[in-house]
Design a protein that fits this description.
The chain is α+β, with helices and mostly antiparallel strands. The protein has 13 helices and 13 strands. A hairpin with a 3-residue loop joins strand 11 and strand 12 (347-352). Helix 5 (124-138) packs across helix 10. It is globular.
Length: 388
């Protein structure tokens, strides 16, 4: 009996040593996994969204040495009681309103500040769209009708084998992918856990094998399509997205603070939602887009691409918002020249070209999936624009 006890004790000690060693060896991966699991909890979400680089792998997007161009201030507005209530209900953390390039409103909430680099979530997709437009204009990518495998050959024999660049820009790849953020077993959450543990987004995309329709026939929002756009960009140029975005978009804009991308285990940028900027700098990007790609006297993105990408061209379901090349177009009471970038938990860049209005919103809205919330958000942003 004593001998059995000694054997058991030694075995227990060995197992404990293995656990400790594994914990040290995988400390960073375990820390990131824990961060993923607590990312959206009520007591941490606001702080987390301003400090994503403390928990996840990341890479800077150099803004260059140029000083940021000051945004001229116009007559400030007083928000209506309806908008004030909306700010609280939707846990807004930052709000910037521009009219004809002039700053008309700016404020921060829930303990955040102008210096916070806030997570973009899917607003990042619209930045990548702008980069694609530049690369097509420069000839690095021949055409949006090219098959994605022309630039990303690793996608051969995957669900993306027959998809074109246009298909993935329009979220119309036909690839089977569960985007339910509230289901822990969904593909999007499974992908998040895999990346937290040092996995690769390229590997995740190439391992997808099922489709539900032919590419281009139906628009169904799946964020992994945007990663495939990134694979095309990297394959066409042989350069990283962070480097390209810095050179082609960020440096010419002249931002206030240096952005960063979250990355996977190989340092590949999380282009489908991992960009982090200040709320002011989201507004700067929106102003450039409103001005058809022109900013500070420089044509940063071709006008034709801006117009094409912000036009409803995807085959969306009847009654659903329109979609272009990684931009949304409202369907409820549509207004000419109105479109927006949108990210989960209440991130927006709203643009009304005819009114000359850009509104940038950062939030930590745990109720963003609630019935009618998305439609009401656009109604509120329209109300602010109309007030100007």
């Amino acid at each position: 009996m004593k001998r059995f006890g000694r054997i058991f004790a030694k075995t227990l000690l060995v197992l404990l040593i293995i656990v400790v060693v594994a914990g040290i060896w995988k400390r960073e991966e375990i820390t990131r996994l824990m961060a993923v699991n607590s990312l959206f909890t009520e007591d941490k979400i606001v702080q987390n969204f301003s400090n994503m680089n403390q928990a996840f792998l990341n890479v800077p997007v150099p803004k260059g040495e140029a000083e940021a161009t000051l945004i001229p201030t116009g007559n400030t507005i007083e928000l209506s009681p309806e908008v004030q209530t909306w700010l609280q209900d939707r846990a807004v953390t930052g709000l910037i309103v521009l009219k004809n390039g002039n700053l008309r409103y700016e404020d921060y909430y829930l303990g955040t500040s102008p210096d916070d680099l806030r997570i973009s979530w899917s607003v990042a997709k619209s930045f990548l769209s702008a980069l694609v437009g530049v690369l097509i204009d420069e000839g690095a990518i021949a055409s949006i009708d090219d098959p994605v495998v022309k630039y990303a050959p690793s996608l051969k024999d995957s669900a993306y084998e027959n998809a074109s660049l246009k298909d993935v820009l329009q979220m119309s790849s036909g690839v089977t992918f569960d985007e339910d953020y509230l289901d822990k077993k969904s593909d999007i959450n499974r992908m998040g856990r895999e990346i937290a543990l040092g996995g690769t987004l390229d590997g995740f995309a190439t391992n997808l094998s099922e489709t539900f329709v032919e590419p281009g026939s139906v628009m169904q929002y799946v964020s992994i399509d945007t990663h495939v756009v990134g694979m095309v960009v990297r394959g066409a140029t042989g350069r990283s997205i962070a480097e390209l975005l810095s050179e082609k978009i960020i440096r010419p804009l002249g931002l206030e603070k240096e952005p960063y991308y979250l990355t996977d285990g190989e340092g590949v940028a999380f282009v489908l939602g991992g960009l982090n900027l200040t709320t002011r700098d989201y507004a700067r990007f929106g102003q450039m887009v409103l001005q058809d790609g022109l900013y500070n006297g420089q044509q940063i993105v071709p006008k034709d691409w801006i117009r094409a990408s912000t036009r409803a061209s995807a085959n969306t379901e009847t009654g659903k918002n329109g979609y272009g090349y990684q931009w949304w177009i409202p369907i409820v009471n549509p207004v000419e020249g109105e479109f927006f970038a949108r990210g989960i938990y209440g991130q927006y860049i709203y643009i009304n070209r005819d009114l000359g209005v850009v509104i940038a919103v950062n939030s930590a809205d745990r109720g963003f999936r609630g019935e009618g919330v998305a439609v009401n958000n656009i109604a509120i942003l329209r109300a602010i624009a109309d007030q100007l």
